Amino acid sequence: MGADDHDTESVKILTEIRERLAGVLEEAVPELSWKEEIRGAAMPAVPTGTVSADEITFTEKYKGCKTASFSFSVVLIVPDGSLDTEELSLRARDALDGDDLGGAAQDVRVTKILFGAPPGRSTEAAAAVILCEVDSFI
Length: 138
Hints:
- This protein is α+β, with helices and mostly antiparallel strands.
- It has two helices and five strands.
- The protein has helices at 3-28, 85-96, and strands spanning 33-36, 48-62, 65-78, 107-116, 126-137.
- The protein has a five-stranded mixed sheet.
- Strand 2 and strand 3 (65-78) form a beta hairpin.
- Helix 1 (3-28) crosses helix 2.
- The chain is elongated and about 55 Å long.
- It starts with a helix and ends with a strand.
- 25% of the residues are buried.
- The mean pLDDT is 85.
């Protein structure tokens, strides 16, 4: 396997994990319009959730078996205050924590939820950032 083949496989794994995270979240929080983003969230016109990769840490936990820990941000934005971001965030956490993403991951851990209002927007707008780690063999 050449370097290009390994890079392609890593991209496939990252894409699969991001897509499966979005799938779990679409089921758990159907009130939001879900997007898989590479560069993070922007202020939407409707309540929206995004899933974006932040970083990958490569390790070798077992002899001959490499693993990676993928860090993702899940951003929930409700621009008009029509939904409770705290309740939506906790539902998302419950759905993600401990999931194996249909076999694509060994573990998913929600590590932190941050709440706030998007800067420069009305006081009705609310946002939450859910930080999660996904462990997978690569």
